[in-house]
Amino acid sequence: MSGLRVYSTSVTGSCEIKSQQNEVTRILDGKRIQYQLVDISQDNALRDEMRTLAGNPKATPPQIVNGDQYCGDYELFVEAVEQNTLQEFLKLA
Which GO CC terms are listed, alphabetically (predicted)? Predict the structure, then answer.
């Protein structure tokens, strides 16, 4: 797969995960950055793929990947936004 992907889930009981996913997509949409949303709740193989790319067997959404390069999780995303280094974080620069 190529391009920017945001791994998320449409099925979660966690308000925190829902909020984090919404914030990531809101910021990307606001900056007009194209991405593909990958819903890991539809297929366990997608969840496993996300965890493999993240290098963490317990990783939870949202996780951000560009091509086969892992960018980071929500905390690293927010840090990049605050430091105005989002393009570099997303491996777009």
Answer: cytosol; nucleus; ruffle membrane
Closest among 53, 49, 62, 55 to 6, alpha carbons compared: 62
**Residues contacting 93, CB < 8 A, separation 6+:** 87
**Strand 69-73 relative to strand 36-39: parallel, antiparallel, unpaired?**
unpaired
The string of pLDDT tens digits covering residues 11-67 is: 999 999 999 999 999 999 999 999 999 999 999 999 999 999 999 999 999 999 999
Strand 4-8 to 63-66 pairing:
antiparallel
> DSSP state, 62?
-
Distance CA 15, CA 28 (A): 20
CA distance 80 to 10: 25
